[in-house]
Amino acid sequence: MRKSVSRHTRQKDVMLQGLRECEGFVSAQDLHRRLSDEGLNIGLATVYRQLRSLEEVGSVDTIRLNGQQMFRICEDNGHHHHLICERCGRTVEIEPPDEQWLRHIASDHGFTMTSHTLEVFGLCPDCQRRDDADHAGADTQVQTAAQAGAQTVA
């Protein structure tokens, strides 16, 4: 069960609004930079402290992505899972596998399941398209260089 928010402060309001404006998960440093860019004078230590406080009461989700703790506003009070783009942080809430399946997997390995989290990482369609375009551009450069080399030899 989630604890109730102990104190409602201006900083918490600013943090929540800043998180609502982010599409996916965001690091504390990136959130701090966004808030500073908007002219809000909140220290990085305060950002970390407020994010930890919001996490404790269940107002934000948190994951580790590329070795960095990331945060996202959590409007859903229920247990949920995420599909996360490891490049841009875009996040989609997904339905979990059947609870019975999870218990069965745990049991097969001698575990008793007490809780679970499920985060699926990959590349979103936009990042896949960017990768495809980058690879196509690199292939074209290699072909052009090879053609230039062939012309020089001839």
From TrEMBL:
GO molecular function: DNA-binding transcription factor activity; transcription cis-regulatory region binding; zinc ion binding
Names of the cofactor(s): Zn(2+); Mn(2+); Fe(2+)
Matching Pfam families: FUR (PF01475)
Binding residues for Fe cation: H79, E99, H116
Example of a GO biological process term: negative regulation of DNA-templated transcription
Localization of this protein: Cytoplasm
Family indicated by similarity: Belongs to the Fur family.
Protein name: Transcriptional regulator
